[in-house]
Amino acid sequence: MLVLCFFCGLRYTLWHMATMTLSQELQWRGFINQTSLTDVAALDNKKWAFYNGYDASADSLTIGNLAAVMLDKCFIRHGSKALLLAGGATSLIGDPGGKDSERLLQTEEEVEKNVSAVKIQLEQLFGEQVHLVNNLSWFKDRGVLDFLRDVGKYFSMTPLVQRDYIASRMNESGGGISYTEFSYTLLQGYDFLHLHRTYGVDLQLAGSDQWGNALSGVELVRKVTGDEVHALTMPLIIDKSTGKKFGKSEAGAIWLDANKTTVYQFYQFWLNVDDDSVGDYLKIFTELSKEQIGGTMTSFERDKSGRLAQKTLAYEVTKLVHGEEKVDAVKHATEVLFGESDFFDLTKGEVELLMKELPTVKAEDNLAHTVVKAGLASSNTEAANFIDSGAIYINGQKATLGTKVGFQKGNNLLRRGKNSFAIIENR
């Protein structure tokens, strides 16, 4: 496994010092699911050295990983020291948690490439230099007999096969599980032991699907060293509008890599979250204070049509992931699309941003033909009906059949209804 480790300095804000302890903020933001601590208030009694694991099965993090990042940042704000662990060794094995069938195994080269990409994203998100440590350094040269004698002997098969994610794969309707994936929990348990011995780590943070694996580490550290360490998981984030795991669009996963999910698509995803969930997402995915979020939600409840909560969420999360310059550009471009700003106020870069996202065609002499060419109508007759009914707009102005084609020289914005757009080049 590859470890991205950095010991972050104390970064309190006056708001956190004055009004919330770590446990209170974690509870308010909805970050606590399960913990080995008998009372979460015990989190406030010391500064923790924690680690959190990031899968390296892809060359980009997703917004599911982003939730874990925000959990880490909450601990860091309250003075804890962070070790961020990106799966190098374990990604070669494959985590069976939350999976109905065996993962396809990746090569060591593929995993190394993924970790390098994830490292860049984590540096952006945390704003500090991170030190990359490959935990293949403590696994690749370790003999299987030594591992089984030194680690395997501490694990009883009975509780392992009873864990939900293993039991579901082993029952009659399950897809089965190989010894390779079954051994994953031993590897993760040993990671905790190694990090505890080497860096003094005394807390593992994880997603709820990692609870069993986290307990493996807690128990292994106790059995081997006699030391008491702990684990805390955050709940699975559910899209209240669908009842499904949050983090996917019709096109698939929402990636933090702009080459996989463009900045525009990323911003639009957050802009379109449902009204019932947006308050929870502001707590989870932003570092806005309780007062700031409360004020935003109060204004939002007074006028939901203005979508202030969604706009705030989209801006804050996109700024965190892609930076202020890019979020300002995509915000301005979005305002133009929805009639809040003039198309000709866009910079060259902002127009180019839209041209990558929208159909871009050359203008025809006939407006109806241009509408069809742009994919905003299926036929000339349908296009003419759209124009006649006032559904077609050129640069924010309603077009009619009785007027000349109203395209200006250069690039123009063609719109049908509220949400269908194209860029028209008139040279």
User: Which CATH C-level class of the largest domain is it?
Assistant: Alpha Beta
First and last CA, distance: 55 Å
Q: Beta-strand percentage? A: 5-15%
The CATH topology of the largest domain corresponds to Rossmann fold
Task: List the uncertain runs.
Answer: 6-18
What is the overall shape?
A: elongated
Helix/strand class: alpha/beta
What is the CA-atom radius of gyration, in angstroms?
26 Å
Mind describing the biggest β-sheet? 7 strands, mixed
Number of helices: 20
CATH superfamily of the largest domain: HUPs
What count of structural domains? 3
Overview of the molecule:
With 427 residues, the protein is an alpha/beta fold. It folds into 3 domains: 2-236, HUPs (Rossmann fold, 3-Layer(aba) Sandwich); 244-341, Orthogonal Bundle (Tyrosyl-Transfer RNA Synthetase), CATH 1.10.240; 358-426, Structural Genomics Hypothetical 15.5 Kd Protein In mrcA-pckA Intergenic Region, Chain A (Roll). The protein has 20 helices and 16 strands. The chain has a 7-stranded mixed sheet, with helices on both faces. α13 packs across α17. The longest helix is centred in the first third of the chain and has 19 residues, at 108-126. The termini are far apart. Residues 6-18 have low confidence and may be disordered.
